[in-house]
Amino acid sequence: MAKSQREGKVFIDWSQNNPAKTTISPYSLRGRDEPNVATPITWDEVHGCETAEQSMFTAENVLDRVSVVGDLFTPVEQEKAALPN
Question: What is the 3-state secondary structure (H, E, C) of 10-74?
Fold first, then answer.
């Protein structure tokens, strides 16, 4: 879906559910020349990003971030969402 058609919406890319895709779990290193860490961020951080680099974390700095803001993934384990029937 083109970005112009999804303004104000959350795009769920169902095509990522494929063994050949590179979706990974939180806090995993991405397989790149300079790997960054798949790090949960807040909506305020999303809105405040002017460049992609502002939301990138490395193995060297991600633990410092967690010690400051906490583990933003923790609520996923604590809050159970009802699945549709």
Answer: CCCCHHHCCCCCCCCCCCCECCCCCCCECCCCCHHHHHHCCCHHHHCECCCCHHHHHHHHCCCCH
Q: Report how far residue 29's alpha carbon sits from residue 21's, in angstroms, rounded to the nearest whole number.
A: 15
User: Considering its fold, how many domains does the chain have in total?
Assistant: 1
Tokens describing residue 26:
């939180």
Which has the closest alpha carbon to 37: 63, 53, 58?
Answer: 58
Question: 58-83, pLDDT tens digit by residue?
Answer: 999 999 999 999 999 998 888 877 77
pTM, two decimal places: 0.61
Residues 45 and 53 sit within 8 Å (Cβ to Cβ): no
Which structural domain, as residue segments, surrounds residue 26? 19-78
